[in-house]
Amino acid sequence: MYAIVDIETTGLSPSNEKITEIAIYIHDGHKIVDEFSTLINPEKKIPYRIIHMTGINNQMVESAPKFYEVAKQIVEFTDGKIIVGHNVRFDYGFIRNEFKNLGYNYERKTLDTVKLSRKLIPGRKSYSLGKLCKDLEIENTARHRAAGDAMATTKLFELLLSIEGTPEDINLNGVQSGLNKSLVQDLPTSAGVYYFYDKDKELIYVGKSINIHDRVLSHLNNNLHKKAIEMKNRLADVDFQITGSELIALLLESDEIKKNQPRYNQSQKRTYFNYGLYSFEDDDGYQNLKILRLIDELSPLYTYSSLHEGKVHLTNLCEEFNLCQKLCGLYDTDGKCFHYQIHGCQGACVGEELPSEYNSRVRESLDNYQFKHQNFFVVDIGRNEDENSIVKIENGKYLGFGFLSKDQVSTDMSLMHDCIVNYRDNKEVRRIIVTYLKKSKCTVVEY
């Protein structure tokens, strides 16, 4: 016997949202033998976007029973039945959580008509309930209402039963389920890094967010770009690491992309940096900037994957801060640089601008790309309220990050050194840290 279920809810997270409607059709493998349907008072306001989608508003559920008032009926109605649903993980997850809040462990076997459809009727462009029913000419007169969607799922299930009489015996391991509802329901709403995998368990994308749940959901709703749609269609599973701190999420994301080279990450894939930006003072007291191959003994202010990339960056600094092309190694001359002739340089190349004035602008141009201290920790929020995250900078280079309990941070600096897990230093992570320090309220501890 099967209990074919559909629910409507106030949102997508079982831990934060509630059921507003439930419909169950009992099916004996041949026909419907019983049914149950009701609105449910979620005991919270229904968001406007949900009202717009389902048509269920706050007035409609005001006098409806609360979940605990129909809980016993649902238990008895589904006892000994296999729960069937389209993206059944979503519906079953919500129902289980409602029972969990009542102190009851609700457990049933489940069967997903998305997976079953992929197995028995392969090759469809979409396996969403609406598209699949349209392709198969299954009528649904009440889309996004529990009874309408449950009945459409029942008709789909009957079609699948005509292909395979005992679908519960089919091995559906590795068959991709529906995405939009099921993949996000267990994701946290805290900061961290998330990982997208395809059906072959290949890592195809790494991202970060201060709210993993909402960010992943935005991916699943993105139909604006060809690559976004392509990635979404390949997506089969999501994993995550909670970091608490946005800074740690940014640093971990950068490292994971460079290490794993996921197919759909483009901006941070380069891993080799052969050139650096160096600064030195000449005999006349002017601060010179030069792009050179990396020197082991010296710490560059910035690193580049190619000489061309470095020169483009330095040219932009010259134009933005009116620096001298000659003193930046971009214009080889014994006299005036080209920018001086077009009033872009204020004359440092020929001694017309005081070194102190010119050097002040050089320092201003570099503020976005270097640390104010050479040896320090960045102490930020951790993965829970009793923890801090720690980022370590030594000799102007990023060494890595770790986590410590707050009482350890305040009592022993040696523990801060010991907790660090080493990660690679490069231009992106330095820029990430400098930018974060300017906008955040984290603590800097020199050592």
Your description of this structure?
There is one protein chain. The mean pLDDT is 87. The relative contact order is 0.08. This protein has helices at residues 48-54, 58-62, 67-78, 88-101, 113-120, 129-135, 146-163, 212-220, 226-234, 246-260, 307-321, 338-341, 355-366, 406-411, 413-418, 427-439, and strands spanning 2-9, 19-27, 32-39, 82-85, 110-112, 192-197, 203-209, 237-242, 275-281, 287-293, 302-304, 376-381, 387-394, 397-405, 421-422, 443-446. The chain starts with a strand and ends with a strand. The chain contains 16 helices and 16 strands. With 447 residues, the protein is an alpha+beta fold. The longest helix is centred in the middle third of the chain and has 18 residues, at 146-163.
Main pleated-sheet profile: 5 strands, mixed
Residue ranges: pLDDT <50 for 5 or more in a row?
A: none
The shape, in one word, is elongated
* Secondary structure tally: strands: 16
Total helical elements: 16
CATH superfamily of the largest domain: Ribonuclease H-like superfamily/Ribonuclease H
Strand order of the largest sheet: 3-2-1-4-5
- According to CATH, the fold-level topology of the largest domain is Nucleotidyltransferase, domain 5
What percentage of amino acids are in beta strands? 15-25%
Could you provide a short overview of the structure?
The protein has 447 residues and is an alpha+beta fold. It folds into 4 domains: 2-169, Nucleotidyltransferase, domain 5, CATH 3.30.420; 192-260, 3-Layer(aba) Sandwich (GIY-YIG endonuclease); 275-366, no CATH class; 376-446, no CATH class. The chain has helices at 48-54, 58-62, 67-78, 88-101, 113-120, 129-135, 146-163, 212-220, 226-234, 246-260, 307-321, 338-341, 355-366, 406-411, 413-418, 427-439; strands at 2-9, 19-27, 32-39, 82-85, 110-112, 192-197, 203-209, 237-242, 275-281, 287-293, 302-304, 376-381, 387-394, 397-405, 421-422, 443-446.
